[in-house]
Amino acid sequence: MGLDPAQERSAGHVVWGAMGGWRGVLESVLPSLAFVVLFTLRPDALGLALGVSVGLAAVFTVVRLVQKSPPSAALGGLIAAAAAAALALWTGRGEDNFIPGFFTNAIYGSALLVSALVGWSLIGLAAGFLMSEGTAWRADPRKRRVFFWLAIAWSALFFARLGVQLPLYFAGDVTALGTLKLVMGLPLFAPLVAVTWLAVRALYRPGDEPTDARAAR
Questions:
Q1: Distance between CA atoms of residues 178 and 165, nearest Å
Q2: Among 36, 54, 83, 133, which residue has the fewest nearby CB atoms (within 10 Å)?
């Protein structure tokens, strides 16, 4: 998630940075919002709704390229939007625009859940990398416990999205599906980033002896 627990920053600053600031919020929200609004107003104009959605993602990517800023986030969004749009156009079903997101949530949720259950929390691995302690955190029961529950929390978020959105997909309710996708996006992502940041930072307070040093005694 790009968090460095060694840095003294407020949770709000970290959350805002993780979302990419205003640009990141707009890149994340506007393409999906445009699709939902246009499809709701004109259910018979699927091509228009998809075209505007992909067009906005393309504009964000071009702006990043012109400004020579890292285009990875916008480029990833563009590719995902284009793939989803192509699938929806092929099937002629607006709800199929959300299928790639289902796979993404399933993969992320499963990976985090499995990593927690086998004792190799992906959150712990990321924190260990950022703090230059590798996998030494596994020798500390407190860190293992915290990283276990953080991975479970993130996994629960991804599976909750599936649990809420899949019934709407099968019901063909594109408006409700798109709206809940937005509601369960950044509004749930941001608080969990804050919780993760605060928990990890508490484990690596300045002056604490590294886990590997304690284990070496």
A1: 9
A2: 83
